[in-house]
């Protein structure tokens, strides 16, 4: 890839290590509101709240769903944020070399506000595309496509760091080069649609990125 490119990041499991805390709160919510936890963990990483409520909590009344969402927001507002190892140095290197970067996430604004309160990620991102941004568009444009457009790049000139299987597939189908952070997923599940798999950002550098 030529030197002129942008880099897009997911949030959970990519910029922040929130997997263990998310697992606890969703287990609590599933037990309290009566839902099976099978397949929920992966769905939570990949789907928006509307899809999660429809798939796992369709038996609840609208009032109960509203209560569930408020409980989740309270959790997200108090989530202790831990950045993925090596992230700060990697982003500093990108910014120092004039590389445009963006955040693409399904996370709620409550969670984003908490992340930005505890980190400097808000000020380092050149664009942020959340599910709220995307809902304004009637077309089927993906968050990655919108972020690339806002940064002024074609999809082929974008690197994407993701940990969600559905997000990895979307970015790949958009024509972008995808690097996966493996998290708790088996490595073999990430081989398809990715050009490199890493555990954290100590395993990648700007110079290595340019060679991919």
UniProtKB/TrEMBL annotation:
GO molecular function, one term: catalytic activity
UniProt cross-references to Gene3D superfamilies, sorted A to Z: HAD superfamily/HAD-like, Putative phosphatase, domain 2
Entry superkingdom: Bacteria
Pfam families: HAD_2 (PF13419)
InterPro entries registered for this protein in UniProt: Beta-PGM-like (IPR051600), HAD-like_sf (IPR036412), HAD-SF_hydro_IA (IPR006439), HAD_2 (IPR041492), HAD_sf (IPR023214), PGP-like_dom2 (IPR023198)
Cofactor needs: Mg(2+)
Record has Magnesium as a keyword: yes
Assigned keywords, A-Z: Carbohydrate metabolism, Magnesium, Metal-binding
Family: Belongs to the HAD-like hydrolase superfamily. CbbY/CbbZ/Gph/YieH family.
PANTHER family associated with the record: 6-PHOSPHOGLUCONATE PHOSPHATASE (PTHR46193), HEXITOL PHOSPHATASE B (PTHR46193:SF18)
Descriptive protein name: HAD family phosphatase
Organism: Dysgonomonas gadei ATCC BAA-286
């Amino acid at each position: 890839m030529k030197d002129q490119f942008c880099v897009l990041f997911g949030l959970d499991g990519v910029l922040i290590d929130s997997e263990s805390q998310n697992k606890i709160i969703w287990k609590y919510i599933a037990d309290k509101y009566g839902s099976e936890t099978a397949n929920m963990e992966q769905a939570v990483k990949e789907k928006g709240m509307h899809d999660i409520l429809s798939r796992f909590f369709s038996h609840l009344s609208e009032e109960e769903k509203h209560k569930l969402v408020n409980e989740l927001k309270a959790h997200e507002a108090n989530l202790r944020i831990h950045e993925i190892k090596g992230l700060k140095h990697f982003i500093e290197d990108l910014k120092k070399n004039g590389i445009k970067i963006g955040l693409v996430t399904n996370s709620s604004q409550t969670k984003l506000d908490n992340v930005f309160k505890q980190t400097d990620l808000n000020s380092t991102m050149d664009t942020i595309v959340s599910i709220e941004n995307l809902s304004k568009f009637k077309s089927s444009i993906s968050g990655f496509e919108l972020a690339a457009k806002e940064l002024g790049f074609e999809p082929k000139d974008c690197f994407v760091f993701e940990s969600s299987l559905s997000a990895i597939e979307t970015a790949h189908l958009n024509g972008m080069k995808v690097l996966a952070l493996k998290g708790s997923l088996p490595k073999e599940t990430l081989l398809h649609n990715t050009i490199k798999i890493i555990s954290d950002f100590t395993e990648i550098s700007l110079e290595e990125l340019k060679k991919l």
